[in-house]
Every structure is written in C-alpha cells, then in structure tokens.
Amino acid sequence: MKIHEYQAKEIFRKYKIPTSNEKAAASLSEAKSAMQELSYPVVVKAQVLVGGRGKAGGVKLVKNEAELTSAVNSILGMNIKGLIVNKLLIAEALKLESEYYVGITIDREKQTPVLIASASGGVDIEQVAQQTPEKILSVSISPLLGLKSFQARNLGYQIFNDTTLVNSFVSFAASLSQIFFDLDCSLVEINPLVLTENKLVAVDAKIVFDDNALYRHPDIAQLRDLSSEEPSEVQAKKADLSYVKLDGNVGCVVNGAGLAMATMDLIKRYGGEPANFLDIGGSSSPDKMREAMRIITADKNVKAILVNIFGGITRCDDVAQGLLWALKEEHISLPIIARLVGTNQDKARTMLENSPITFAKTMTEGVKQTIAALKG
Amino acid sequence: MKIHEYQAKEIFRKYKIPTSNEKAAASLSEAKSAMQELSYPVVVKAQVLVGGRGKAGGVKLVKNEAELTSAVNSILGMNIKGLIVNKLLIAEALKLESEYYVGITIDREKQTPVLIASASGGVDIEQVAQQTPEKILSVSISPLLGLKSFQARNLGYQIFNDTTLVNSFVSFAASLSQIFFDLDCSLVEINPLVLTENKLVAVDAKIVFDDNALYRHPDIAQLRDLSSEEPSEVQAKKADLSYVKLDGNVGCVVNGAGLAMATMDLIKRYGGEPANFLDIGGSSSPDKMREAMRIITADKNVKAILVNIFGGITRCDDVAQGLLWALKEEHISLPIIARLVGTNQDKARTMLENSPITFAKTMTEGVKQTIAALKG
Amino acid sequence: MAILINENTRLIVQGITGRDGSFHAQQMLDYDTKVVAGVTPGKGGSDVHGIPVFNTVRQAIEKTGANTSIIFVPAQFAPDAIYEAADAELDLVVCIAEGIPTLDMIKIVNYLKETKTRLVGPNSAGIISPGLSKVGIPPAMAFSKGKVGIVSRSGTLTYEIASHITRAGYGESTVIGIGGDPIIGTNFIDCLQLFEKDKETKAIVIIGEIGGTDEEKAAEYVSKNITKPIFGFIAGQSAPADKRMGHAGAIIAGGKGTAKDKIEAFEKVGITVIYEPEEITQKLNLTLK
Amino acid sequence: MAILINENTRLIVQGITGRDGSFHAQQMLDYDTKVVAGVTPGKGGSDVHGIPVFNTVRQAIEKTGANTSIIFVPAQFAPDAIYEAADAELDLVVCIAEGIPTLDMIKIVNYLKETKTRLVGPNSAGIISPGLSKVGIPPAMAFSKGKVGIVSRSGTLTYEIASHITRAGYGESTVIGIGGDPIIGTNFIDCLQLFEKDKETKAIVIIGEIGGTDEEKAAEYVSKNITKPIFGFIAGQSAPADKRMGHAGAIIAGGKGTAKDKIEAFEKVGITVIYEPEEITQKLNLTLK
C-alpha cells in the first residue's frame, strides 16, 4: 500500500526525521491559511500515488500569493497518469546545496532488507543505478538485529566528509530502519535528502507498506486514500480479488496470477487486447466469482469475456455457481467463453449446461474463440 | 535491580497478565482505605526485597478489620533478614485449586533466555529442580526471534489438559517474554501461578532487571526502592563502587571482583572475618578510592583495613591519592595495611611515604599483617 | 526416484481442521499420499477423515513417524506453524498458506538456515511426484508418472503446462510449485540441482514470471550445471510496467525483471523458450523422441 | 608458539582517543605489540602516540592490514564496535569494555557464530603472550615468557597468580582473561583446547570464581581431553549465598555454582586445587621440576 508524501512525512517527523516546514491543503483557502505558518517561497506539490508528477507539471515553486493561487488552481484536479489530484503539499523552499538519496527496501536475492544510499540523489535514482552503479552504495540489514550504526557510518563516510553530517546521516538511516521494521514496509525512501545550511533535511518521502502485514497495523491501514485509486480496483480489493484495469476490450477472469498473466499474453499473441488482469485467488467462492463478473462488465470497453479456470484449490462448481448468479442478476449480454478444468469440472459443466456460455476445451481454443466473438 | 512484588504486578497488568485484586499500602490507614475496593478475606504481604518473607511471618491471611489491623501492625516495620518492611500488599485471597510455576531467566550455558514452567509451583521451585528435575519443563528462547507460540504450547500441553488453560498459559508466557525483552530483565517469574475458578492468575510476581541495561529504561530505574536497601550499599552504588556489607571486622578495598573475593577468602583462611566485599572497579580514580574509605570507615565493626591493589587499568598513584585525601579528611585512626603493585606502583609508594600506612609486599603478607593489627 | 517427496513421505497436515486443510487432506489421501497426522492446537484427540489430529507437531511425529508437513493455516498463524515444524526437525515443510508478511518470511528463511528442514513456499501449490505422493493442491488429473521435471513460481499455470505434457504421454517425475512470493524457502536453483541429479528426470521445465531476478539467476546456473534438455516459460509479457499483477513477486522493479529480460536470459544459455502452454508438446517431441 | 596472539598480531584499538584506550595503547606499544591503528568515528585522520586513527574498522584494515582489535569504548557503544569488528572479518576481538547488557551480549554471541571472528570478553583483562604481544590491560611486570598457560574469569587475581609463576621462573606461554560476565565469547574449554595443542605450554592454570557452571563444564572437559598438568583456583569461598559480588557472573544461583561445587569438580578430575595464590609456586615445583 502506498501513501502520500504528506502522510509519509508525518510518520518521518514521529521518528524524528527532519523535513521541510510544510502543510497539506485540499483547497485554495486551505493553501492560503497554510501560508500563515509558512514563508514564501514555497513549493506546491501534487499529492498523487504515482511517479513523474514533476514532469506532469504537478510541482511548482511560488513566491507570492498570486503565484500560489495560480499554482493551486492549476494543480488541484489535475489528471496525472489517470489519477486526479485532490490534495497538495505546500512546503517552504530550501536552498539545495546538495541532493542525496537514502532508502531501505527488500533485497530479494540476499533475502534481507537493504540500506541504499547515493551522493547522486534528486534525479532518477533508477537511472543512476543502471548507468553508474558505482555511485550506489548499499549494505544488507540483518532482519534479526536491525541496522547497526557502524553500517550506516561505513556508508556515511563514503558520502560525506564532515563527521557532523555522517552522524546526521546515521540517525536518518536509523530512523528509516525503525520505520521499516516497526511498520512492515516494502520501501522507505528519501529522495532527495537535501543538504541545506549544513543540515540534512528530507525534502521528499515515500513509504510503501506490505499489504500482507497491514492486519497488525490498523492505524496505517486507515491511511489508505481510496479516492486516489482506481474505483474498480478498490471494489475488487474489497472482494479480495486481485484486479488491475487496463485499456483493452477482452475481459478475463482467471484463477492464479501466473495463469492470468499467461492468458493475457495469449490474448495479445492472438491479436486481442486484455481489458484487465483479474485473479480470483486461491480459495474459491461463488461470491467472489459473481463480484469479478460485476467488476468486469462495469468496464464499458469490455466486448467479450474469457473465463479461464484450472481448478486445484479453486473448485469449478463454485465458479459455475458464481457465473450463474452473475448472469441472472446482471443481465450480461456480452459473449462469455469459459474454459473450466480441474477440481469438480464435470459438476460445473452440468450446472452451466443451459446457460448462454460457450465452452472451450483448451486455453488456446478459449482465446481464439473469444477473439472471434469480439469480431462478431 | 530487584523491585517489589506490587511494582512487578503493575508491570504485569500493563502487559495484560491477570493478577489478584490488590492494593499497596504503607500504613494502617492506607490498608483500611484499600479495603474499600477489596473484599475480605485478603492476604497481607510484606514488600521486601529478599526471599523467605512467609517463613518470617511477613504474610498473613485476614478475614476482618480487626485481623487486618493486627496483621498490618505486626508486619509493618518488621525486620526480615536485615531489611525493614515499609510497604504492604493487600490482595484478595483466591481459592487455590492448583499452583504452577512459570518464569524466564538467562541460561548461561546455552547463552539464551529460557522459559521454565512446572506443574509443581507454589513451593520452593529450586528444591523441586534439585529433587525432581523431571517436573521442571524448559525451552530455550531465541534471543533474536523471541518466544514462539508453539514453544509455549508444547510446554502448556504437558502441564494442562484443557485447551483453554493451554491458551491462557501461552498468553502468560508471551507476556512474560515481552516483559523480559522489552525491559532487559534477568528474571521474570510467577510463583505461584494459580488456577482459580478455571482461570490462571499471577498470585506472586518477581522481576529482576539487568543493571547494565537500566540506562535505556529510565522509568524502570526510578522504581528502585533505596529505602529497602542497605544504606552503605546505596552510597557505594552512587560512587560506582561494587560493595556488599558483611558481618566481620576486617574492611577490605580491592580492585577487581576476583581478587576481592580471593582476598576475603584469604582473610578467612588466616582466621579473620571480612567486613565487606569492595571492588573499586576497573578504571581508577582518586575520588572512588576516597569514597571507598569513607564507606568502610563508617562501618563501626571495622577494626582494620586491608587495601589490596594489583594495578592494571587501575593506577596505584590514583589509589594513593585517594588514600591521602581520605586520611586527611576523615581522620582515620584504624590501622591500614596497603599492598600496591602494578601500574605506577613506585609513584604510589613515594606519595604514601610519610603516611601512617603499613606496606605489605604480598597479598598473604598483607592479610597476615592486617589480622595481626586487629589483635592489637 | 522423483525428488523431495515419494512413497516414503509421511505427511502431517498442519491446519487439517480448516476448510482447505480438510478438503485437501482428503484429496491427498485419495492420491494415496501417506497422510499420517493432522495438527490443530486444541483439536488433539479428534480425527479428520480417519486421520488422527494432534495438538502439536512434536506429538504428531512421536506417534506417527511423520517426516514432512504441509501448512494450510491462515497467514497470520503460518509463521508459527513453520517454526514449529522446523523445530520438530521435519525434513520438508510445504507452505500453501499465502499472505505471510515479507519481514516474517525473511526471519523464517534466516532461521531455517540453521536447521535441517527444507521449506517449499509459502504461497506454493505444493509438490506432486505423480503416482507416488502428492503434498499440495494440484489436481491429480493434470499429471501422470513420467520423465519431465517441472519447477514453477505459479500454481494453475503449472497445471496447464503439465496437462499438455501428461496428454503427450511424457508424464512428470516431480512437479514443484516454489511459490509466488518475493521471499521463499526453496528456489529454482535448488530444484534444478535436484532434477539434474535425479535419474528418472529426462527433461526439465522452468516456469517463471515477471518480477525479481530468480529466472536470470537460474539461467546462469543452468549454463554451468545443467546437462539435461531444459524448457522455459515466462508469464507476464503483456503486463504494463509498474502495475502489480497479484503475486507480490510480480512487480517490475527498476527496469529489471521484465519478461523480455528473462526470456533473453533463457535463450542466451540455451533454454528452449515456449510462448504458449501447448507448445511444450511439440518442443518435447523434438527433444525426447 | 603461544595461543591467540603473537608477534604476527596487528592490532586496532577501538576507542583509542578515550582515556583508557589512549593510556593502554601506549602501554601495549611499550610492550612492542604491533598497534597499527586506532578507530574512533569522527577522529579519522588524526593520530594517538603516532598511531593513525580511522573513522571505521574497514578503513583501518584496508590501510594497515590489521587482524585483531581491542575494544575500549563505553559499554553503550561496545556492541556496535564488536559488530563492526566482526563484520570487517577480524580474526580476534578482545573486549575490555564492561557493563554491556546481557541481552546485547546474547545477540552478539549468536551473531558471531556465523562469522570467522573470535571474541574474548567482554569485561576481560585481555590477553598477553609474554615477550610477543599484549592485547589488553595486564601490567607487564607480572609476566615473563615461559611455559604455563593461564585462563581466567578474573583480571587482577590473574596478575596476582601469574606474578608468582613469573617470580618462580616458569613464566607464561599465554594468559587469557575470558571476562567475568555471564555471557562471554570465549570460554574455559575453548582456551583449554588451544593450550592442550600448544607445544610451548607445559602446564595450565584455570582461575575460576563462584557463579555459573563454567568451571564444572571445564572440569568435565579436562577429564576427557587434557593430558597436561593442570591447576585450579576458585575465588569466592567465603562469599555468602545470594549476595552479589560485583561480577555479574558471581551470583550463586539455586545452590549451584558454589565454590565448594567447583572445587569438588576440579578435584574429581585430578585438577590440582590451590587455595592461596602463592601456593602455585610450590605446586608447580612438584610437577615441573
């Protein structure tokens, strides 16, 4: 789960990480009243759960109220990669002497968290990592002992000459590590970490939480900003479905993420465009299947639906039941091609015998039939 | 550092461990007003930092106010093994169906904490351990992962037949483990853990903290009850001296715990009785030496003093300086025998040349001279 | 032969009294897997489909001589179940449970390094050695005893590909779902090593997906250590960058771990890449016939 | 020979800029120990008694080829210093610092099991191989090159006993203070094993004290593994039960670990017990002359 910069900064301050002076605002009047506690120049920053807001015009430096008004008006409501900006962060502009990067994420290969730091922050750190990997410093963090001061110091002395700055870097790293472990993060990141007036300050902040661990952090789970997410994806999440909306016209309902991706790949291979990724998950239930059909048919781009199930823990009869309910309640007129094999497949076939659903024997056959149905 | 039962119970309740209904009281009137929230029969328990209060008459069951009055009057001010009772715990008496033991301490051999439990609680657990070791169950706790539920379950099913009680035992153990790790304990213990009305309740509570870790638990450090400790030992602790008061008449000041014990052993071997254990510690300072002399000379039993120093990190000149200050300020008339060898020994000798101190060449010689001085 | 599980596997089902645990205990019994015990704390003394249930894994082992367990308990309790199984020194633990927090898994894999227990999963479909034993949820009909070893990050996609191999008459020696999570107990390389040594296995299929660099590492390993014919499939070629596709592992991070990267890595070391599940039949025909 | 340290020991002093670190760096230099570097974060680039100071242990090793370190930093920072030394793969770390919390030490000894680093201490007086190297705080005058190996939980008591051995002309091969804390990196048995193998060591002295059961374990080990003449001393015979005698280790717990227990354990396996430091001379005369 991602949260907004302003929310991440609140967590940072709780963990004693210095940030710029700043306030969140959801309207022009809130932005203006924020200025009672801030001084110009300030930076107005779109709060949106996707990268690249700067290039999209979602970040503006303003020197006075007139500029503030114009910036707020232009950014609020802006559409950045499909997401609408509902909130802004107004932050006092700092004199940036240098920009660094520091973050913690999971190193899948070493199976530990890893502290990453670079003297080349501020720009696209992934580009730095690809083009000049020697500028990226990193050290594995023991998942049992946590980050040790000496580890952060070893990195710090490679980035800073000044011991005061090294010590400051060490406490930034310690706080990030604490946040990472305390709150079950997948990523905590400061980019840029800024040197201003001989002090280090977190000018941006990014935290991604491990969805699987949210059950033990109810306060964090509440930070989810549903208004910033695709509504159909929110609906899917509620039904415990794994769903990603895409731009094509072939809806697909599959069990298992691997098979779902392979199904999408095959649709594309045979000339179609998938309208979504949808995994109904491991343990099957007719309700989830019905909800899946509701979500897909709500997407007006969808012209045909392929149901591809290879039953294991998922039972084909549960899927059939959900399909029957959806057909009855939602009045679906789209062509539906179903390929159901595995656990209880015969029962499922029997249940769907009198439905308008077309059966396919194999995955490839199902894909071909679906694309044929599209064309009429 | 030890704390009183009533203080340990407060920590228990913070960690959701059920205790008896109870209140602490420091006077008869406090005891009486405690009864506004409690019902007879209650147990009046001396709060004293030493074992064996029961045998000493420091625990009494009372059924009404008359009995309460008499119990409070007899226990308050009682001297139990040299410590005065200043505080009582008034606890509602429970119907004890069974008594168990559960505790966590450090297993020096395995170098891990260990969870210990027994169905034979309530009596002297050390006796059980010696006489019927098969009745003591234990399991090592990973210092990095903490106690795992399954470990407590494995023990629980060996003690209880009822799954509800096993689950309750598992949560007792989990809380004890959390206390142990959160607060850097050397020991947390419930003895007896009581089964009453099909529920488990902590009827007694013992927590010992690791002195070396108190710096990171300032709130715990404040629980120290100085009024319950030997005043000279409190004074020594303040001066960062390791001091234990004993009953003999030969005061000794030594550097290093091992040498200090060996010195005491030798005093005893040659017919003397050590008045104390005193280790001035590793890093020497004249101030500590002076304070050591002050503490020892304040003990009116002391008739002669042996200073036995083998300098390494401790410098003999620092010791000499402290001795000189003490001689000057405290007007000590007792015979002092000093044996100073090691780092800067010559300088020390020179400094003490004109003092009334008798020099000894060896430890045995020093002990013999001191005992001779005792006799006149 | 077969790897990891065979007719000597004596299985404990941890979480046997749950919906999935109970259902698949029966399915595994039907496959003649030696399901000797179930474990559910508090249900000790009862039975499920005639399988005795114990309160603890230790008790189960003592009474039944079990050497393997499969974990169906909910994610929240799965870490404790894994620790319990490893502490009781089982040889193999297969974790079907999904949704275990990553930091929990990191601690577990670290802990397991000091034990003799191998973990497969979590979020795994389990293992099947057709005709010998099934420790997992794969539907029996997709498999038959034979000579192709399959190792996969996916569940249903594996059934799909295996069913073609079965229909073509080659059959499988062992099929392993290593699990779709970012942190897992047994990886591609561990399984490749076992398949290379297994005499019954004549060809290997590796089924990967976008996210992480396990497939790239596996390709590197294959180039130096695998002599048997090997085939690869990668799911997620059509997935847009930075969109999460359900598996926690399937995030394209920093331009690495794309389907393109993985397919290139496979082709570079001579792994025959298949682009459509049913293609596997034709490719096996070319190699094994 | 000598064990653990010798003329090839190249030493880093962690905490060299502190009062004790600086004083003993000089003392060790005076003993011709190869003190090649100091480490104090923030003081890198300076020097102490001509010894270059670095910000990190890794830098110090890179520039000086050090293989050993000694730790003088305050207890609060000592765990980090030990981790840093082990992470930098030093062979030996001697921790003089005292007052490290027990739970910190438990984590450290667990961590060290997975590294190549041996820890001696904490709360140790250090090690001296007379005539070759001194890594610790023992006063030089108590020791001379010779043939008795000493291992001890105590500091000053060791100097006391060693000084008798020195005066008697036997001298010491190596003297090790293993530290007085309940949780330490290197125990009696580790050292006994090394002394048994060391050709130069002709007799061994083990100096213990009340608390714990390390002496009892050592006695058990001696009975099976030590062929050399061995002498034992136990401090704390006059200590009353349940009174803490300064060393965290010196608590008599549950009737175990009393001086009587330990002396009996020694005598049972043929360790010659001495009851007074200067007795060692006479006992050595009987054995070695």
Notable characteristics:
heterotetramer; A: 376 residues; alpha+beta; Dna Ligase, domain 1; D-amino Acid Aminotransferase, Chain A, domain 1; 3 domains; C: 289 residues; alpha/beta; Rossmann fold; 2 domains; 33% helix; 22% strand
Description:
Chain A folds into 3 domains: about 20-90, Dna Ligase, domain 1 (2-Layer Sandwich); about 100-220, ATP-grasp fold, B domain (D-amino Acid Aminotransferase, Chain A, domain 1, 2-Layer Sandwich); about 230-375, Rossmann fold. Chain A starts with a helix and ends with a helix. In chain A, helix 5 crosses helix 6 and helix 10 (about 285-300) packs across helix 11 (about 315-330). Helices cover about 35% and strands about 25% of the residues of chain A. Chain A has 13 helices and 18 strands. With about 375 residues, chain A is of the alpha+beta class. By secondary structure, chain C is an alpha/beta fold. Chain C has helices at about 20-30, 55-65, 80-85, 100-110, 155-165, 190-195, 215-225, 260-270, 280-289; strands at about 10-15, 35-40, 45-50, 50-55, 70, 90-95, 120, 125-130, 135, 145-150, 170-175, 205-210, 230-235, 270-275. In chain C, helix 7 links the parallel strand 12 (about 205-210) and strand 13. The interface between B and D is large, with 56 and 67 residues.
CATH homologous superfamily descriptor of the largest domain in chain A: Succinyl-CoA synthetase domains
Per DSSP E runs of 2 or more residues, the count of β-strands of chain C stands at 14
SSE order of chain C, one letter for each helix or strand: EHEEEHEHEHEEEEHEHEHEHEH
**Mean pLDDT metric of chain A:** 92
End-to-end separation of chain C in angstroms reads 22 Å
Tell me the strand percentage band of chain C.
15-25%
**Chain pair sharing the greatest interface:** B-D, 56 and 67 residues
| Extended strand count of chain A | 18
Structural class of chain A: alpha+beta
This entry's quaternary arrangement is heterotetramer
Per CATH, which architecture of the largest domain in chain A?
Answer: 3-Layer(aba) Sandwich
Residues in helix, % of chain C = 25-40%
Q: What is the total number of structural domains of chain C?
A: 2
Q: Kindly report the CATH topology of the largest domain in chain C.
A: Rossmann fold
Q: Enumerate the strands of the largest sheet of chain C in spatial order, edge to edge or round the barrel.
A: 3-4-2-1-5-6-7
> What is the general shape of chain C?
globular
- What characterizes the major β-sheet of chain A? 6 strands, antiparallel
Overall mean pLDDT score of chain C? 93
In the CATH scheme, the class of the largest domain in chain A would be Alpha Beta
User: How many alpha or pi helices of chain C?
Assistant: 9
End-to-end span of chain A in angstroms? 40 Å
